[in-house]
Amino acid sequence: MADEGAMDKMKGKAKQAAGKLTGDERKKSEGKADEAKGKAKGMMEDNKDRIEGLKDSLSEKRRGKK
Fold first, then answer.
1. Domain of 12?
2. pTM (2 decimals)?
């Protein structure tokens, strides 16, 4: 599965560029929103990965104590 956050950021940048070229303020705003959404998704995915790593680390420590 592709990184959805990165896809949203790219889509947002494209919309912003299209809005700038055509003078469409709404399209530019939509692009900014899409880009922000992509950044948020990316941060959530990073945090999810960190939590999984922490869980794995704690599980390994518990196994080592037994």
1. 4-65
2. 0.73
